[in-house]
Amino acid sequence: MSSAAPSIILDNFSLNIADKDLFQNLSCTIKANQFTCLLGPSGVGKSTLLKAIAGILNPELFEISGTVKTSNDQPVTEQIAYMAQTDSLLPWLNCLDNTLLSARLGGKVSKEKKQQACDLLQKMGLGDDLKKRPQALSGGMRQRVALARTFMQDKPIVLMDEPFSALDAITRLKLQDIAAELLQDKTILLVTHDPLEALRLGNVVYVMAGQPAQLSPPIIPPGTAPRETTNQAILTLQGQLLTQLEHT
Amino acid sequence: MKLVRLALIILSIFLLWQCVVWVFKLPPYILPTPVKVLHTWYAQAGLIWDQTKPTIAETLLGLLFGSLWGIFGALVLISFKPARLWLLPILVISQAIPTFAIAPLLVVWFGYGETSKVITAMIMIFFPVTTAFYDGLKRTKTDWLDLGKTMGASRLKLLWQIRIPSALPGLASGLRVAAAIAPIGAIVGEWVGSSHGLGFLMLNANGRMQIDLMFAALFTITLITLILYYTVDFILHRLISWPAA
Asked: Sheet containing A8-17: which strands, arranged edge to edge?
């Protein structure tokens, strides 16, 4: 099982591409065991920040300084699971094998892992599609498999880069519910440009704006995730956030 | 449907050919009618088949080793940066040398037998395979590689489990081209020096003005090429059913 989730600590973090400062001396803590949402307009550097934390930025293009560490002082890159905007399912593997990708890349796939993946996909309503290739699935189903794959990595930290942005509104709500249920007890950092998504899922929401980008004071939505879309407080906050994003 | 279309195309070519012979009243030692060629093909079947066997062997061996060489080349190129910088220009230069021109040399170096023909075919085949496969390896989606990296996969694992499968559709196009040109390689090798094979038969028939036999041999080569191409195409479609990245 996953060890207790650590928090992520950014200290004096600066990131620069082609003489453009995306971040300058940013210091913040992404709290452990919480769902943190970064909300911001396109191009502000949300995805770049996630990739920097995940350690997959091309070092030839980006200049990075400062530190990114976790509260347990273990290497960050060994504790994360990363979920990108696209589902990144491999077209030559079926759903089950895609879900087991990290085990496959790590060496042998144990029987227990396989059974666990089967059960998980079953629970997510994909029981009949285990042997189907991703091309045969709808966008929502594909993203569900991607979510299952992320979960199967069994890492304490999950970084999510607008994972539901390509889906229709209803499917998106359903997947947010699944994500909230599946990813409890992990440290999650989700970036999105959808205020409702941030407010439904986040324990804490930050608005990211400016160049170099700064974080707003934390916004703490009332209640527990996944919050209802009919919740009046959430809707009011959504309206405020939309106005705020418009003026950044 | 594919087969019906193919049959129709071949039939119209034969019809056109027959008409040309009739209209221009060409003698058979210039251009025999397709009927005459088919007749010769049937009458000389034993001779033609004997000469076809070595050509098929050379073609298949050339295709096998040329493809392996091409696959190996692409893997070296993608794995080692110095190889990309130094080997790629050499490969391109090697392709600028016409195979027809060095085929006689190959006969001198590797002898009159089948080896020189296999090598001629290999030289013609490896380059399209290398470029197609290397292109596929290079074009692996960054998202997939990033995902693999965040899962802690080693370079070898990334190559084996993500890059290579993602490049297989590219490799398949290279192999299709290879299947189409492999018989040409074998025939070129036979033309410049051999004592058997369809290329040898063609040269001989040509020299003796047996144009019908010459065409029968040509027809056989075309048939081999078509069968080889469609077999390879069929197998590849079966094995690699996902789209290119």
From this structure: A20-30, A8-17, A62-70
B121 vs A73, residue with greater confidence: B121
Which residue, among B143, B144, B151, would best test binding to A if mutated, counting the most A CBs under 10 Å from its CB? B151
**Cβ contact (<8 Å) for A90 and B165?**
yes
Give exposure, B162-196, as e/b (b: 16+ Cβ within 10 Å): bbbbbbbbbbbbbbbbbbbbbbbbbbbbbbbbbeb
On the question of pLDDT at A54 being above 60, the answer is: yes
A148-193 tens-digit pLDDT: 999 999 899 999 998 888 888 888 898 899 888 888 889 999 999 8
**Predicted structure pTM score:** 0.86
pLDDT number for residue A2: 45
Chain-chain contact of A88 with B162 (C-beta, under 8 angstroms): no
A105 min Cα distance to partner chain B (Å): 6
Q: Which of B147, B159, B160 is most worth mutating to test chain A (most A CB atoms within 10 A of its CB)? A: B147
* Pick from A242, A118, A226: nearest CA to A172: A226
